[in-house]
Amino acid sequence: MFPIFETELTRSLRSKKFKLLLVVTLFPIVIYILSPNSAGTGAEALRKGFESLFNDLLPNYWLGIIGQLIAVIIMSDLIASEIDKGTIRLILAKPVKLEEFLAGKFLAGLSTLMLLFGVPYLVAWLYAPLPYHAGLHGLRVVVGDFGAVLGVTVLTLSFVGSLSVVMAVTVRRPLYATLATFGVLFLGQFLIPQIPYLSHPERFSIGYQALVMLKTSFSNVNVIGTPWKTAVAFAGASVTLLFLAWIALTRKEFPD
Fold first, then answer.
1. Residue 256 covered by a domain
2. Cα-flanking dihedrals φ and ψ of residue 37, to 5°?
3. Does 242 fall in a domain?
4. C-alpha angle with apex 174: 171 to 179, nearest 5 degrees?
5. Can you give the residue range of the structural domain that contains 54?
């Protein structure tokens, strides 16, 4: 599994696509640095400002439609490109088990995504104390919030990524798999809230559920839901989707 993981991760990090998407994920942080809009000084003001920043950007940008599209672009290409080019037969002809191939590819894609999203999070964490004059103490104050944001992002992107893998195995063509996966995500989050008589329809979005999980660390999150139940649901859905992808791969005949 490790050779597949290492090869795929290296290929992803060297690609122009990674560099372009990193610019996209960093864009809000550039705006934040240029205009931090800090209110007050000190550790308490810092924590409120840091949480407010991620309360806004996490569900509406990084884990919103834009972030989901980035995750789909990265994850859909992992296996669909191998199937489309026929190289999957050469890989599986080596002493590599199908589950090792799937796990290596998925973990490489998830690691790529965590770098794409983790770098702007890290910049935000390191920069945040400066406009609040909080110093190193400020970093320690919000390190728990920083860890919570990373954890929520891992769970959320794992779900989006595993759905992308299933669609890639089904559709086989990278572009079509990307469009199909994003279509499912977009329509699901757009159409379900339109159903009449649903209470709090906004909760039927990935971004909203990400905020639910953040309630474990953030003090000013006013959303409906239980964090641990949402976390278990995301993790369980991810494992189930990967298992379905593995079953689909075992039953497919791949072209030369």
1. no
2. 55, 45
3. yes
4. 75
5. 2-29+40-250
The closest of 92, 112, 110, 117 to 26, measured between CA atoms, is 117
- Reading the block at residue 196, the tokens are 């009449």
Residue 255 maps to a domain: no
Contact between 181 and 76 under an 8 Å Cβ cutoff? The reply is yes
> pLDDT tens for residues 108-138?
999 999 999 999 999 999 999 999 999 899 9
Q: Is the pLDDT of residue 254 over 70?
A: no
Give the helix ranges, DSSP H, for the chain. Answer: 2-14, 16-34, 43-57, 65-85, 87-93, 98-127, 129-132, 135-171, 174-191, 206-214, 227-250
Total domains, the chain: 1
The whole-angstrom separation of Cα 131 and Cα 46 is 8
Query: What is the Cα–Cα distance from 97 to 219, expressed in whole angstroms?
Result: 45
Predicted confidence (pLDDT) per residue in 39-53, tens digit: 788 889 999 999 999
Model-wide pTM > 0.90:
yes
